[in-house]
Amino acid sequence: MLKKLRWPDYLILMVLLAAAVVIWVRVEGVLVYEWRWHIIPNYLLRYDEEAGRWVTNLLTQGLISTIRISLMSGFLALILGTVLGVARCMQNLTIRMLARTYLEVLRNVPPVVVIFIFYFFLSEQLIAAFLIEDWSRTIARSDQGWIWALVFGDMRLFPSLISGVLVLALFESAFVGEIVRAGIQSVDRGQREAARSIGLSRLDELRFIVLPQALRKVVPPLANQFITLVKDSSIISLISVQELTYKTAAVVSSTRAIFEAWITAAVLYGLLCFGLSLVFRRLEGQASRHG
Amino acid sequence: MRESLGCGHVLGHDAQPEGDAWMQTDQPIIRIRNLDKYYDAFQALKNINLDVHQGERIVICGPSGSGKSTLIRCINRLEEHSAGQVFVDGVELSDETRDIRAVRQEVGMVFQQFNLFPHLTVLENLTIGPIRVRKMSRPDAEAKARLYLDRVHIPEQADKYPAQLSGGQQQRVAIARSLCMEPRVMLFDEPTSALDPEMINEVLDVMVELAESGMTMICVTHEMGFARKVADRMVFMEKGEIIEVAPPAQFFTNPASARCRMFLDQILEH
Ligand SMILES: Nc1ncnc2c1ncn2[C@@H]1O[C@H](COP(=O)(O)OP(=O)(O)O)[C@@H](O)[C@H]1O
Ligand SMILES: [Mg+2]
Fold it and tell me: For ligand 1, what atom is nearest to the CA of residue B42?
């Protein structure tokens, strides 16, 4: 890799700089946009006069909610995706076709449409069927409410949180399934044959021989997919799940600080995802060093 | 040679032996009758007949692509045959065979590429079968595993991972893994072909010891020194057919078919 800048690099940088200046001039001169960066910190943390301490405000709440939803739906998507991936490799044609259909639908329909369909046809019905609304309201009022709140956040928002997690997990599971399928198929055929030749059942073969090797191989692509999931999670603001994008929109509508709020959201998403990728890269480096 | 390749058993033309007396006296542990195997339109095995009795050692040789692997893989149903019959200990292998796993427990297999489980330690490679399939307790399974590691002369490697072992050691672990299931027959598919020359003998020594212990063995190999030492019968295959079956003394000195003689000349040259 070249570490020194040469003339093409200077050219590229000049062009970028010129573009930035043009945009700046337009924003400053034509739009006459009045920057109000000073109001943003207040939407991250604000001082609660009554309680006498600092509390999180909309944007930070949204970020926490995004992290929470990502972790939960990531976990769920991993389980669903593993099932899908295994289904894609089964001998049974019907099961294989069903898993394939699921994937193809998700791959060929825009995410927003998928999300709305999942939301109205599935998670709304589930939430109604299991009386989750009533249940979560009871929990919110009960004494142990704070324990639940630790994991799930505000329990009054629990139904919407669950919808979000479900919808996102269903959406991502198709892609996790593809990754897992590739992992399973990358396990040497001889491994299955050896497992079979000592008499292991198909389930044991999968559980003790194929999946452990497959999942080990797919950790890096799964980590990438998780970062994608964090970014995709902004879509569920459309079904009124109160995560970072939703909260940012709320801040924008009450303050009109369009650029400031959205740039802040971008930075928060960016830091989160970049941080994750650094962590994953380090873990991967360690794993490969230990064989 | 056409009808019955078994030793001293003339079964006549019936595909299936009749009469319980025969079944009880000396039933071959493996019976292969008129076996055909197709890969799509390509016929990999043509009308194979072979009986193997308890305690017999069979060595199969033949040019590459002659169907040796396919044949022994039909014995534990890693390949499904297209026509004919395969019996293991009297149980016919077919789609309907309820418990193909029960059959596989009786038939150990050693592969050219070892196929050890890379994510498990040597000890775990050896115990997973006994624990999961034979439902043995972990301490019992480990005791048995150590016993067989001893038998293949690598008791000190129990806690290593396969990748940390030499090829010869890995293949001996693979043999021990099969033996831990206490099989009645062992199949070997070119067990030394993937090994560096200096490691071949350590594996062959273990196989000779196994033969001497009375294990029924079917070995695909081109190690003719080994074959001379242990084989009861040599089987020569070409183009999916068994061309010749003979005791080693006769096979090596005076093979009946010209093709077999040519093959032997080629591999014994080196
Ligand atoms: N899975 C398969 N699909 C198609 N053809 C195969 C397959 N396995 C083996 N064959 C063919 O069957 C023939 C016999 O193969 P094999 O039993 O591996 O021979 P050998 O072990 O004697 O070298 C070869 O011509 C090979 O190309
Ligand atoms: Mg072969």
Answer: 5
- Contact call for B108 and A198, based on CB within 8 A: yes
User: Do the chains contact at A198 and B128, CB–CB below 8 Å?
Assistant: yes
Residue identified by tokens 């109000």 is: A36
Give the separation between CA A41 and CA A57, rounded to whole angstroms: 9
Q: What ipTM does this complex have?
A: 0.86
pTM: 0.80
Contact B244, B78 (CB under 8 A): no
Give the residue-averaged pLDDT of A194-209.
94
Pairing of strands B185-189, B216-220: parallel
Output the CA B58–ligand 1 centroid distance in Å: 20
Q: How far is B108 from chain A (nearest CA, A)?
A: 7
B131, B219, B232: which is closest to B175 by C-alpha? B219
Ligand 1 within 6 A of B67 CB? yes
Q: Do B116 and A197 touch (CB under 8 A)?
A: no
- Segment A219-247 shows an average pLDDT of 92
Whether B119 and chain A come into contact, CB under 8 Å, resolves to yes
User: Quick one: average pLDDT of A119-146?
Assistant: 79
Q: Are A155 and A149 in contact (CB under 8 A)?
A: yes
Alpha helices in chain A (DSSP H): 7-25, 40-44, 58-88, 93-108, 111-118, 124-129, 132-141, 145-152, 158-186, 189-197, 202-204, 211-217, 219-232, 244-255, 258-289
Sketch out chain A's domains with CATH numbers. Answer: 56-290 (1.10.3720.10)
pLDDT at B6: 41
B-interface mutation test, from A191, A196, A198, A219, most B Cβ less than 10 A away = A198
Structure tokens at A120: 């109205």
Could you tell me which chain A residue has the CA closest to the CA of B179? A198
The more confidently predicted of residues A188 and B16 is: A188
